[in-house]
User: Fold this.
Amino acid sequence: MNVAVIGAGPAGLVAARWLAAHGVEPTIFEQAPRLGGQWTGLHGSSGVWPGMHTNTSRVLTAFSDLPHDGDRSFLASRDILHYLDRYADVFGLVSRIRLNVNVTGVHRDTSRPAGWIVEHDGAAESFDRVVVASGRFRAPSLPTVPGLETFSGDGGARSTYDYRGAGPYRGARVLVAGCAVSALEVASELAQAGAARVVVTQRRQRYVLPKFAAGVPSDHRIFTRYGVLADEVLARAEVDRQLKEIVVEAGGSPEQYGAPAPDPSLFAAGVTLSQHYLPLVGEGRIDIRPWPSSVSGAEVTFADGRREAFDAILFGTGFSLDLPFLSREIRATLDLDAVHLDADRYTFHPDLPGLAFMGMWDQSGGYFVPMELQARWIAYSWAGVLPAASRADQCAAVAAYRTRRGLSQKTRMNLAALTFARAAGCEPRLQTWPQLQRALLFGPLAPSCFRLEGPDALPDAPDTFAREAAAFGAITSNELTAREREYWGLVRRPRRQPPP
Assistant:
């Protein structure tokens, strides 16, 4: 069986690694001149700037069988790129990558009962299967603001996707639009690197979780397996309360720093990870305004009536799904738009057998762990390691997804990871690992915990996972704290969740 993998970023590389491991031959198509996807930092095809660091910890920004060099908590973008180069080399992927190849079309191969045609650079090749791993963060989504086209500031109005550092904005008055990671990180860098004035404009105030809480990366505390179990059996209001408790204990509430008070519900307000943003607000180095109502020349009018002139506007307002190479038939089957893609667990569609998608969902938290689990599910399904989902089950999953169209599509890293782990048959059972119970419940969803059992289990996974859970002093004993006992008791004696 031969498979075309479109994209040589983290998703495409990990998909190819697991396909090759199970006897399926991948050919990886990459339009850029090097592998790495967003982590290349190449202008025009990447939104990563030179000084950028991850907001996900070292442990959770890795695949299960290649640890990072060194022991830094949060890595620079160049470190991630180096890691992906090593990964491709270790697992024999370099020779399978075709660089500078622009895929322009994917459609059914009508010359045989099953198969797909991949068109690129005037050529067409037939493959048994196709994995679309071209990236969820390719097409910045810019909002409509009346008069934006008239903006006359010297720095222009553009997406943070095109931001390459604070240099051009030194001494400038900069408006940063958005409340998610890129907006807050860019605003923080500008405020610390010489911008004359930094204003963040937002539709709503989110809670802000610092990268560290008492020396432990926050993603080790908030993206846990316990959080998934709680989400499945507890009332939504109780899950909301518990998550908000973690966030506010770690970093306080925005109004304590002089920012607007967020909605009392964390689910309604949302949460963003940023280490420096709220302290900079508290120091008066970043001001906050409501959303712009209009732009006229260099002047921006906000929803509260205030007006201010700016030299530059940067929009950190998210991304649209962008898969222009898919045929009209495929797009119609998926009912694809800028936000939605109808698929069973973001991966398969019953009417498109032999076509799979990697990394096309929107979430809070790092993608490396859930993407590897998704890759294993695809490889196990196609290689016959596990039975593929039935057509009836896939149809039911797509129908369930369609009921959520129009609602927020954002999920959480731990929910996505456990979804794929269960599909791939590698969710560790608590009763099998009593010596790791606390780490498995309240520790980080480190990639090694998904090599404890199931296909491709590793004999050293228990020791590796224990070390990763204990990293930064997080989970150093198996004894639950009083709060953990309380929370685990709620999940072990579940109450019926009320209808949403």
In short: The longest helix spans residues 236-251. The radius of gyration is 23 Å. Residues 496-500 have pLDDT under 50 and may be disordered. The chain has 15 helices and 24 strands.
